[in-house]
Amino acid sequence: MSTALITFCNRILYGLKCVAVMVLILQIWPSFGQDVDLPDLVMDPAEVEAIYRVLEGINHDIDWRSMFPGNPCTDGPHGIICDTDNNTWHVVELNLGWVSDYVNNPPCSDNATIDPAIFQFSHLKKLFFYNCFTKMLRTIPSEIWKLASLQHLTFQSNSALVGEIPPEIGNLTHLERLVLLENSLSGFIPAEIGNLKNLQQLVLYRNEFIGLIPDTFQNLDSLKILDLSGNQLSGEIPHILERLTSLLKLDLSDNLLSGGIPYELGNLENLQLLDLSSNRLNGSIPDSLHKLSSMQYLLLGENLLGGPLPEFWGNLSNLIGLKLSDSSYKGRIPDSLGLLHLLNLLDLDNNQLVGSIPSSLGDLPSLYHMNLSSNLLSGPILFPVSFMNRLGKNLHFHNNLGLCYRLPLINVSSMEIAQCSSQRNSTLNGSSQTQQPSFAMNNSYASSSKRKPKSMVLLCSAILYCFSMLQPVICKGMYHP
Fold first, then answer.
1. Coil, strand or helix at 377
2. By CB atoms within 10 Å of each CB, which of 30, 135, 299, 320 scores lowest?
């Protein structure tokens, strides 16, 4: 087939395509320019009024009705989010309390309150109060159960929010997130929270709760985050927490909990953070924790645990932070800590650890903070200079009278560590004995026990002197016969 014929056929095909497109345009042309029927979206007047009343409740100083005269769902302030149901707007999310210029929610005044109109939002899924109740004392209303569709409930940084959690909160069976953070709530944690089977996050951090951790928490098998820290909870850590197998974070720190660390916590194999610090726990670290291979942060400091540190650290290969400060641990620092190649933070200070510091710690590539101060450690510091320089001020050795450093480690004056000498008193195991580290340098070339006799030294010197005097004569005789 000639080139001209091929070109002719391609032009015919192109023309047919153009005709097909023109036919399609002509078919749909009559609909162009006509109005498209859109659903007529409206909003229940009662719900509109409820929005204004809630806004006026948190801040009477703003004329909300004049500032936002239109549909609050489409023209209302930031923080009000709506959705449609049967061609009707409904409020599904309320974020109240100014957070920042980037999250510019409606601000609360000093006399902010929760208007009962808020319970008219039958489609409400998320309710958030931030820094709203800081002057006038307020409580969480027991009518909260009326918000049956609620999935997220947050009261954060409300210093004047007092009283107990109403037990009616257990009726919010759709709740997935209950965050009561940095308020002044008090009393016992209601057992009814155990009814919230869909709960994935429970945070009661920094309030004034007392009493025991409810056994009903064992029913929260969807829970991923449990944070009860910063309260005054007492009693033992419930063994039934082992049933919360979905847990990623368990934080019970800064309470008055006593007893031992439950062996059953080793069954929470998805756990990434375990913080039991600042309690009154006793006993030792259970060996069952070696099964927590997903663990990233293990924080057990400021307790009464004592005993030797376990040797299972090589199993926790994902560990990033390990804090075991101020807990009366005894014995040596396990060499297996040197297997934690992702470790970034290590705190073993204020214990009774003895012996030398494992040199393997100096090979950890990710470590940037280490505190070994206030122990009974002894012997030379064998870390590379590059490791010491990398950690800098984040490396703490002070108050270990038995430690010393070699000459290359000259930037340790702030660590209160002495330079190693050839002979120094060792206080290891509480006894005083004289020892000489293998790396120590002395002004003498050898110890006195191996020093050559003085007469031999003088004889050798005399022979060398005579040879030096005779050397010119001998050489002259060799080259000038």
1. strand
2. 30
Question: Cβ(296)–Cβ(274) under 8 Å?
Answer: no
> Rounded to the nearest 5°, which phi and psi values hold at 109?
-95, 175
For 384-406, b where at least 16 C-beta lie within 10 A, e where not — what string?
eeebbeeeeeebbbbbbebbbbb
3-state DSSP percent of the chain in helix, strand and coil, to 5: 30, 25, 45
What's the rounded mean pLDDT across residues 359-377? 97
Q: How many CB atoms lie within 10 A of CB 346?
A: 22
> Is the Cβ–Cβ distance between 261 and 282 less than 8 Å?
no
Q: Of 178, 129, 190, nearest to 158 (Cα)?
A: 129
Rounded to two decimals, the pTM is 0.80
- The amino acid at residue 83 is D
Supply the DSSP string of 275-325, one letter for each residue: E--SSEEBS---GGGGG-TT--EEE--SSB--EEPPSGGGG-TT--EEE--
How far apart are the C-alpha atoms of 140 and 35, rounded to whole Å?
A: 49
The 8 Å CB, 24+ separation contacts for 358-364 are 358/333, 358/334, 359/383, 360/335, 361/333, 361/337, 362/387, 363/338, 363/387, 364/338, 364/340
Token pair, residue 436, equals 């000489």
In which residue are the tokens 């926790």 written?
316
Q: How does DSSP classify residue 255?
A: S
Query: 182: left (phi > 0), else alpha (psi -120 to 50), else beta?
Result: left
The band of 103, judged by pLDDT with boundaries at 50, 70 and 90, is confident
Q: Tell me which H or E stretch contains 465.
A: helix 454-479
Degrees, nearest 5: CA angle 363-364-369: 120
Q: Which residues pair with 42 in a beta bridge?
A: 88
How far, in Å, CA of 227 to CA of 255, rounded? Answer: 11
pLDDT digits (tens, 9 = 90+) for 290-322: 999 999 999 999 999 999 999 999 999 999 999
Phi, psi of 321 (to 5 degrees): -130, 130
Distance separating alpha carbons of residues 338 and 334, to the nearest angstrom? 8
SS3 82: strand
Distances (CA, A) of 418 to 68, 380, 401, 405, 412: 71, 10, 8, 6, 9
Q: Name the residue among 70, 159, 164, 71 with its Cα closest to residue 108.
A: 159
Query: Which fold, 128-435?
Result: 3.80.10
Measuring CA to CA, which residue among 355, 358, 354 is closest to residue 370?
358
The size of the chain, in residues, is 481
